[in-house]
Amino acid sequence: MLPNDLDELYKEVILDHYRNPRNAQRLDDAHVKAHGFNPFCGDEVDLQLRLNGDGAIREVGFQGRGCSISQASASLLTEELKGKTLAQTEALRQAFRRMMMGERLTDEERESLGGLEVLAGVRQFPVRIKCALLVFSALEDGIKEHRGRKR
Ligand code: ZN
How much distance in Å is there from the Cα of 151 to the middle of ligand 1? Predict the structure, then answer.
């Protein structure tokens, strides 16, 4: 299920998140709801965010099914979101995308990725990059929709 050349330690972290996804509860009346589907391997992710009055993310919910990379990426992301604003979330998404494209990141960007850095090795497997990015594009759509509703 996982590419063979991934670093062993990273592989263990990815499998752990795949088997025990974090923040797996479903949040009712979330402010941001995101859904993503990747037809190439049937990956699916659902994400819910509840925000504080000041716009920071207070709670995260995640459900999904599909390949280990897509599910681990979503689970790892849920651990980085709490306390961030939607703008910071957007910056995180861009940093992650740049990492996947093999671009050089600033120290600040690398730091913002936190645990998501274990997915860096996935960029060697172009077909799996879509899996890793799925939750991020879903979140981008969800945030757009949320901002649209507020206007
Ligand atoms: Zn996949």
Answer: 35
According to DSSP, the residues that pair with 47 across neighbouring strands are 34, 62
Assessment of whether the complete model's pTM goes beyond 0.90: yes
The pocket of ion ligand 1, defined by CB under 5 A, consists of 41, 43, 67, 70, 131
Domains of the chain: 3-150 (3.90.1010.10)
Confidence of residue 151 (pLDDT cuts 50, 70, 90): low
On whether the CB atoms of residues 71 and 131 are closer than 8 A, the answer is no
Distances from the Cα of 139 to the Cαs of 10, 26, 36, 53, 93, in angstroms? 24, 15, 8, 20, 9
Longest dimension (CA), the chain: 47
- DSSP secondary structure code for residue 135 in this structure: H
- The Cα 90–Cα 83 span in angstroms is 13
